[in-house]
Amino acid sequence: MSRPLVSMNGLERHYHMASGTVRALDGIDLDISEGERIILLGPSGSGKTTLLNCISALDSPTAGAYSFDGSPVPREDSEEMTSFRRENIGYVFQFFNLLQDLTVLENITLIQELAGGRDEARARQLLELVGLSDEVDRFPAEISGGQQQRVAIARSLAKKPRLLLGDELTGNLDSTTSAMVMEVLVKACQTEGITCVFVTHDESLVEYSTRVVRLDSGKIVSDDPIG
Amino acid sequence: MLFAVVSMVAVGLFAGISFGTYANSVHNLYDNIYADDEEGTNLADVWVENTASTWDGEIADSLCSEIAQNWPDPELPLVSCEPRVILDGLMFHSEEGDEKLVPAVWHGIDEGWIDKVWMPEHECCSGRLAAADDEIVLDEHAASGMGIEVGDIVSIGAGHGSMDFTVVGIGYHPFHLYYALEGSILPAEPGTFATGYLSDSGIERLANLSAGSANLLLLDVEGTPEFDLQSTDTVEGESLSQAISYVRQTVMDADDSSFTAYDRSGVDSVELLRADAEGASMSYPIITGMIAMVAGITIFLSLQRLIQSQAREIAILRTLGIPRSAIMPGFILAPVAIGLIGSAIGIILGTAFGGPAMVAMYEEIIGIPAIGFSTEPSLILQNLGIAMVVVLIAGIKPAYEASTIQPLDILRGQNEVRLSSRGIQRLTSRLPTTVGLTVRSSVRKPMRLVFTFFAVGLSMLIFGTMSMMMDSMDNLVTGANQNWDAQVNVPFGGEGEVIEWAEENGADFESMLVFPGNAEGDTRQFLAYGLDVISTGDDAMIPIDLSEGQLPTLGANTPNVLVDEGTMLFLEWEVGQKQTVMFGPFSLEVEISGVTSGEISRTIYFHRSDLSDAIGLETTSVLLTLPEGIELDDEIGEMSVGITQRQDLIDSFESLLEQQQGIYNAILGLGILIAVAVLSITLLMNLSERDSELATLRVLGAPISRIRMMILGEHFAIGLIGGILSAAFTIVMAQYLISQLVQWAFYFSLQPNFASTLQLILIVVVISVLSTPIGTSRVSKMDLVEKVKDLSQ
Questions:
Q1: Do B696 and A97 touch (CB under 8 A)?
Q2: Which of A114, A147, A160 to mutate to test the interface with B (most CBs of B within 10 A)?
Q3: Number of helices (H) and strands (E), helices first, in chain A?
Q4: Is the pTM of this model over 0.80?
Q5: Is B419 on the interface with A (CB under 8 A)?
Q6: Which of A170, B312, B395, B623 is 20 to 30 Å apart from B295, CA to CA?
C-alpha cells in the first residue's frame, strides 16, 4: 500500500478559554491518500475548521503526530509553516477573497510571483479549465459570485499544490451555482491530480467526494468511502 | 494616535498663543515707543534730509520758518520743526589691546523734543542726556556689545580725526531701535556698529561745523497721522503726503541743496519694526490655522480609522435598532474632547512658556526691552475658537459616515467590494503583478491621500519656508559672491587719501558713488550706485546678478542703468523703458538696460561717470580688497566717515542664525513630528484596510519577505509622491508668503535650491519608509487562524 499523503495520529488541539480548556480536536487519527476528495461534515463546533487549519499548518496541534508525504509538518516556526503552505497547499475561502485591485488573470499571476515564478500561460490555462477564459481582464467586482469562486479555485491551483483545502467554499452561493462550482472543482482536481479536503455543512456536496469524514466534539465519528 | 492628535491641537494653540503674544507685544512696543507722549520718543512725522552737505544755522532756521509759515493743513497742525545733525563716522574701540574701527552714526541733538533719546526706567538704561560738548549718550546696543558703561571715555570720529567723549548716559534712539547698519536688514553683531547722541555743540566740535549747522530737519505734527505705506499702491496717509509735497516744494524754492523729504516709512529701522509687527500679526492666525488644519485632517483620518475598526460593532448596533441620532454624538464628542484637552494644554504651555520665550527672543535679537508685555484673554479666545472650529469640522463627516453605515453591507462584507481604476490598471498592466498591486494600493484612496499630502505639505511648509528663506538670504545678506573686504565712506573729495592708503598697502580699490534718489512722482527712496566696473564676473568688486536685459552702455546719450527686481516690481517698470529719476532737485532721464536680482534694498546701478555727471559728485565710498596680513588702521579710520567690513555682515548673519537655531530646530522637529503622525495614520489605515488581502496572501503561502517588499514599495511610492508634492507645495506657498511680506525697504525672492528641495522630499520619503516595520510587524503578528475565520464566515 502506498504511503498516505496526509497522516495524523492522536492529533489534539486545545484552546485555553476563561471558561476552561476547549478540546477542539481530541485524538484525531486520519490518513488521506493522493487523489482522494474528502468532505468533512459535522455540526458547528465539531472541530472541522480546526482540523482544516491543522492540515494546512495555519494552526499548530497541541499534541499528536502529523506528517505530510512522510515528513513531519512544521508547527513552531511561522515562516516554515508558510513555506509548507506555499509548496503544498491550495486554499479556497467561502468569501473568495480575491484582490479587488487586480484583474482575474492578475489574481492568479500574483500568487505565482509570490511563490517564485510567474507563468501567465498556465494562469490562462487554469482560467480556461474553470471556464473563465473570456473574463481574464475583468475586475472581481465585475463578475458574479460563482465566477469569483471559480477564479479562487484557479488561483488555488496556480502553484500546483498537492492538497487543495476549502472551507465552506459554496456557503455563499446558491445551489445551482454551488453545483457548477463543485463540478469545475472536481474536474480541475482530476485534471491536475490534486487531493482535496472540503469542510461543509451541505450534505448535498457528498456526491462530489470520494470519502466522507464526520466529526463531533473534536472526534471522528464516522469515516466512509463513497461509491 | 490619540496622544498624537491631542498633541497636535496643543501644538497649534501653543504656536498661536506664542506667536500671538509676540505679535501683540511688538505691536504695542511699536506704538508706545514712538508715541507723542512723555513715555514715548515722539517720532518725527516728516524728515527733510540734506543729502550732499549741511545747511548753516541761519539757513536751517529759515527753512523751518518758511515751512511753518504757510503750513497747508490746519487739521494737521505743525507742532515744531527742529534742525539736527546726523553724521556717519567711526568709533575707535580698543578691546583687549586690539584697535577696532567700528562704523558709527552720530546724532547732534539740540532741543530734543522730537526723536527723543529713549531712556526708560529699566535696567537697560542709565545716566542722562549729553549737555556739554564732550559728552555722549551711547546706544544701549553698542554699550552692551562693547562693554562700555556710564563714565567711560570713548574715542570717536567723523572724518576729522578722533576725539574723546565721556559717556554720560546709555539709552536708545528711535532711528536705531532696530539696530542695523544702513542698507542691512540684519541686526548688527554686538560690537560692530555704534550710535551715539551728542549735544549740538558736541557734534559741531566732532565734525568741525559752525554753530547751528544741520543736515536734517525734523517736523512734528499734532498726533500720529496716517502715513503712506511704501509697499502698497494706495495712498494711506493723504494729508501727510500732501504736507510732504508742500515741504518739498518749500525747501526747493528756498535752497539749492540736494535733499530728500520722507515720512516714517522712509526710515528703514522704523519700517522694519512696523513690518515685523504687521507680519507677526498677519502670520500668527495663519500659523495657528495651519497647525489646527493639520490637526483637523489627522482627527478626520483618525476618526475614519476608528469607524473602520468599529464598523462591525456599529452595524450590529444599527441592526439591533439603535438610531442614527444615538451613534452620531459619540463621534462628534471625540473631536470636541480632543480639541478641548489639546487646547487646554496648548493654552497653558503657550501662556507660561511660549509667549515669554518668543518675547525674550525678540528682546535678544532686536535688543530692546519689551516692557509690560502680556498674553491677552482675547488672544486665547481667538486661538481657541480657531482650533475648536477646525476640529469640529473635521469630526462632522466621519460622525455622519458612522451614523449612515448600512448594517447589511458591513455584515456581508460588501463595504470591501469596490471597482478598481481601469486607467491605473492599464498603466501598470505590463509591470510584474506584485509591483502593479503596490502602485494600485498606493493610490487606492485618492481623497485620503490628497488630504494626507495636504497635511504633510502644510507641516513641511512650516519649516521648509524657514529653511529656504535662510538659504536665499544667506547669499543676499553676506554677499557671498562679492569681492571686497571693506567699504570706506569718505567725505566729499576725500577719496584721494583713501586711495593713497590703498596703494601704499597693496590693496585693490574701486571708487564708488552712492546717492539717494527717487522716481519722478514717487517719494520712495532708492540708492543709486555709481560703479567703475559693471560686470557679472569676478573682475568687479560688486558683481552683478543680471536676471534680464543687458549690462549698461557707458556714456550713452540717455544714461543706461540696471534696476533691481524689487524696484522694477514696485514701480512697474520694464526693461527698455526710459524713466525719470530725481536726485533732490535734479532730474535725470535714464534708460533701463537690465534687471538685477539679489538686492535687499532698492538699488539702481549706473556707470559712475554717468551718475557723477548728473549730480556733480565724484565719489562717496572706496571699496577695498585687502591683501593677506593687511588690516584697516586708525589712519584710514580718521580719513573716513564710516567703514563697513563685509566680515561684520557675515558675522551678523551667523549670529542671527545661532540665535534662531533653537527655534529653527524646534520648528524643524515640529514639522517632522506632524508629518510622522499624519503619514503614519494614513499608512496604517491603508494597511488595516488590506488586512483580509494580506491575510489571504499569507494563507496562500506568501513569504513575509515578499510582503515586506510590497509594503516597502507602497510606502516608498507614497513617500516619494508625497515628498515631491510637499516640496512643490512648500515652494509655491513660501514664494506666495514672501511676496506678501516684502516691502520697499526690503525685498527678496525665494530661490529654492536643489539641496533644500531634496531635503524636503527625502524627509517625507524617510518618514514613510520608516513606517514599513510597523506594517510588516502587523502582518507577521497576524493571527491567521482568526483571519481565516473572518475570511470564511
A1: yes
A2: A114
A3: 6, 10
A4: no
A5: yes
A6: B312
